[in-house]
Amino acid sequence: xxxxxxxxxxxxxxxxxxxxxxxxxxxxxxxxxxxxxxxxxxxxxxxxxxxxxxxxxxxxxxxxxxxxxxxxxxxxxxxxxxxxxxxxxxxxxxxxxxxxxxxxxxxxxxxxxxxxxxxxxxxxxxxxxxxxxxxxxxxxxxxxxxxxxxxxxxxxxxxxxxxxxxxxxxxxxxxxxxxxxxxxxxxxxxxxxxxxxxxxxxxxxxxxxxxxxxxxxxxxxxxxxxxxxxxxxxxxxxxxxxxxxxxxxxxxxxxxxxxxxxxxxxxxxxxxxxxxxxxxxxxxxxxxxxxxxxxxxxxxxxxxxxxxxxxxxxxxxxxxxxxxxxxxxxxxxxxxxxxxxxxxxxxxxxxxxxxxxxxxxx
Length: 362
Ligand code: CP3
Prior knowledge:
It contains 16 helices and nine strands. By secondary structure, it is α/β, with parallel strands linked by helices. The chain has one domain (6-259): TIM Barrel (Alpha-Beta Barrel). Residues 24-29, 38, 44, 71, 73-77, 89, 94-95, 141, 157, 204, 206, 340 line the site of coproporphyrinogen III.
């Protein structure tokens, strides 16, 4: 039993005493305590693969910042690695893949990941759940297939993801077959996370904003939709079994709330309201009232403070945070930032932002 289930209730549209809050990248470099644990691992990938260390930094923000949920410390890039494309995290630069995928042969060679390939993640989830002992829910996550595809083709971060987009234009059939392999892997992975104890799931589509609305429907939303369907009611599962797809047949997992975060996809908000997800996460460029009217009252909204707000004085943080809370209103809102915390934001300001939300009453 969970002692604090505010986020779960808010996600389902049930009554809450106050707006719940957690932050993207709360398990990260803003905490000196995180940096200390990180030093114990050889590098970022080794850190992610160590369930004890991953569990420790997952719980830190619950103890230190007082957030209403833990998010598993891991990375979206564990999926390419499990499919046969290892990555490195280069200090101050970001992800780097020595091999990329560009040809039919290279797509064929990739495998569909199954839950067992990522047992270090499910082991970390089990440790976190034990250690949390019901204090707050645990959020599991994955990248959206498009965002994972973008890194696998490009081989690193990019402002434009022009190589990944080039593939969409020059070989849409190959793009779809890679996106389907990533989607099947992600479904297996998220099911394993839920089976291990994740209480809700967030899907990160960090590079949604480089696509046109039409491309977004065809190359991203379609696959996010398959993931939502597969996690809810197992519809995707039946189809996959019928079509002989290598999806793992875990049929009995609880139906957990799903949050979809598509950064910069202001153009897709109406389409996203049709997904079988419970929560849509907004970035700070998206007007709150406009988003509510596009998405309707059937979903919870999450977000959407600009992380840079947390560089300001406390009086401004308080004023803007309360303005945001009023704009979302008392129903169906989970407070968060519009994207992850930046590493140089002061921990004290982060805590102040969280406390402002926890103390606010309508
Ligand atoms: O606190 C949390 O949110 C949970 C852990 C988490 C990490 N990455 C840890 C991490 C989560 C949910 C992610 C998701 C992730 N990873 C995304 C989607 C969210 C987003 O930011 O848009 C993306 C695109 C990645 C890929 C990735 N990982 C990049 C581009 C980078 C480098 C940029 C940076 O911030 O340095 C990472 C590294 C990373 N992942 C760090 C952390 C805490 C920092 C690395 C470090 O500790 O050295």
